[in-house]
């Protein structure tokens, strides 16, 4: 008796290039044990929403600015995830920090991609271009990306995959960011997504076990 | 008018596998702008001394335990380096921490290889197997090695080269240590040595400029 693929929600805030990598990986058969059911954006005008629509993936906007406190915002997120029976959440450039209450409810069910080789250049304040600027300022010759489970500590959860990327003499934060995306993030995020989906799939560990 | 190759001293304390990599790189023409003139050990029975002798490289033992304070020990090191007109020092498993007085005297003239991708798993207390144990305990999937200039901050000097190495599920600190040596340290240490030797060589920047 087979169960359906693991239901995945991708959380976005911006351009959604990592979402695109996930969509492409699903099409090309890299992700087979999971299926992107839903794209959740906290920004109404995130281009990631267009990408989802272009691929007939359901979207929902839950704008954190519409909620006076984070608990209400997260309650709405949970309600939406529950309605769609989501089993795995992928943070793909989602610019809200989730509380311990939320991450505990989805323990080992939230993936994040961070644009450095954790534990270098990670934790509070290290996001986006700041990560690459810090790496260049430090003078590293190798950086990369990390996919990890999300817990209550920023970038503190168990590491699933990492991939190294070379730094070049002439790099700017922008150039390095692009290289890390192309050579690392867009590969290891879908791969990690498949690894974790397969585990959930094979354990027969379904939606009902998630504490909501 | 050509100058002779940059005179290199390699500081060792143990087995000297990194010294061997440097000797091999000199033989195979990877290091051409520098020449290993001297191997300095703080341990009288370091096997690295055998390796040097087998390759007709002069050795000297300066045992830190013979000196009541570090300044005297370092004064003896400096005297020896001066006598041999050493222009570049390579720390290859040298287990004594050098003072700021010494590192300032040889600013940008001391190289060290550290068995991780700095800034991960480096600084005080991170040496030898401890580095690899820390990496495995953290759960990283990628580690590596770094060659950097030595300044007064442990593992804090400018990075010259880094190379990434994969971590395997079944790794022990010992297995990981060996892989990092074979796949990273033994390659980037000779390469960095040649890069820095070439710079010194081409600047015509000779021994006399070092502040002793």
Characterize the structure shown.
Two copies of one chain form a homodimer. By secondary structure, chain A is an alpha/beta fold. Chain A is 38% helix and 21% strand. Chain A is built from six helices and seven strands. Chain A has a seven-stranded mixed β-sheet with strand order 3-2-1-4-5-6-7, with helices on both faces. In chain A, helix 1 (17-27) crosses helix 6 and helix 5 (129-138) packs across helix 6 (173-203). The first copy, chain A, is globular. The mean pLDDT of chain A is 94. The interface between A and B is medium-sized, with 19 and 19 residues.
Count the beta strands of chain A.
7
Q: In terms of structural class, how would the helical and strand content of chain A be classed?
A: alpha/beta
Write down the oligomeric state: homodimer
Largest interface: A-B, 19 and 19 residues
Annotation field: number of helices of chain A? 6
Strand order of the largest sheet of chain A: 3-2-1-4-5-6-7
* Residues in helices of chain A, as a percent range: 25-40%
């Amino acid at each position: 008796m087979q169960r359906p693929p693991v239901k995945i929600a991708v959380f976005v805030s911006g351009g959604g290039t990592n979402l695109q990598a996930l969509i492409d990986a699903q099409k090309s058969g890299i992700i087979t044990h999971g299926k992107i059911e839903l794209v959740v954006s906290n920004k109404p005008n995130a281009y990631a929403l267009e990408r989802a629509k272009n691929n007939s993936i359901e979207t929902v906007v839950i704008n954190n600015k519409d909620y006076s406190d984070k608990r209400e915002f997260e309650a709405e997120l949970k309600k939406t995830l529950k309605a769609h029976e989501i089993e795995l959440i992928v943070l793909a450039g989602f610019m809200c920090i989730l509380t311990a209450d939320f991450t505990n409810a989805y323990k080992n069910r939230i993936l994040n991609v961070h644009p450095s080789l954790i534990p270098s250049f990670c934790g509070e304040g290290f996001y986006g271009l700041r990560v690459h600027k810090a790496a260049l300022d430090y003078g590293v010759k190798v950086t990369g990306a990390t996919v990890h489970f999300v817990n209550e500590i920023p970038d503190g959860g168990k590491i699933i995959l990492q991939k190294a990327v070379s730094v070049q003499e002439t790099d700017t934060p922008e150039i390095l960011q692009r290289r890390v995306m192309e050579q690392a993030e867009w590969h290891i995020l879908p791969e990690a997504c498949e690894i974790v989906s397969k585990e959930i799939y094979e354990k027969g560990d379904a939606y009902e076990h998630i504490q909501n």
